[in-house]
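U., I forgot to send this yesterday:
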Amino acid sequence: MTIGFGFIGASDIAKHKMLAAIRNTPDCEVVSVYSSNLERGRAYAAETQIPHAASSLEDLLANPAVHAVYISTTNELHHAQTLAAAQAGKHVLCEKPLAMSQLEAQTMLDACREAGVVLATNHHLRNAHAHQAMRDLIANGAIGKPIAARVFHAVYLRESLQGWRLDKPEAGGGVVLDIVVHDVDTLRFVLQAEPTEVISLSQQFGMSAGSVEDGSMAVFRFDNGVIAQVHTAFTVPYAGNGFEVHGTDGSLIAKNVMHPAAQPEVLLRTANSEQRLELAANEVYSLGVARFIAAIQGTGKPAASGEDGLWSLASALACLESAHTGQKVAISV
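Result:
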């Protein structure tokens, strides 16, 4: 059976990343798209050759050809749209962050569980070969006991994305809910550990017009004892990106691993050698879709579950609270 997807949100990421990922997955197709602006939805459908532009969310969810939805609307809409999809019996792949509060995210998990549908979070970075290799090396003791980690993921937000992310806190704008959620999820995945507390500072360096943060630096503590520094920004054009994990017997030093289009480099350094891992860049969105489909079919699990999305949201919200209060904040779900 062909699994039909409905796009909730006529977004840039849906067009440029998820559309091809779904179409390249066997027995999958995008059959409908819903935008709050019907004319925009129709133009989007025509441009992308999606056969149907829904006139409303209810119209999309009532379509029997839609078996699953991909939600990429602004963050404050995810909660209600996921609840509606679950009630309609549709599986849900939702962009991060799942919601605007932990309570909302938990009700999304509960609703999907009660409806018997899959809820997955689109944390695409954990699908990268580089992060999977780092996870395996750490689990196999290649660097001994992990001590500390560092993620640098400061970028310059391109003009086409400089809308609500910079001026709408009510929609979940700001660099923490946009990027830190990904970094914390990647740390959780690679370390196979949970964050327990965070202390952070944020900045407004001119891009955000003062309503939300456009830069953040935070230190998270994990339940395996690791402390991890995370630097994110919308304002830094030349930093590059990377991920380091340092242990008692060695270090993993990775570059170009926080952006899926880059060529990854991973170096394993120990007392006796330096080994550069041969890792090809891979299509992280397609792998995420494939694992979502496997979960729907009962043959696997999503790359990132709803529970994973809840953890990353809780960590990001704690990061924001710490920056606001100047205090260390505990993380729990």
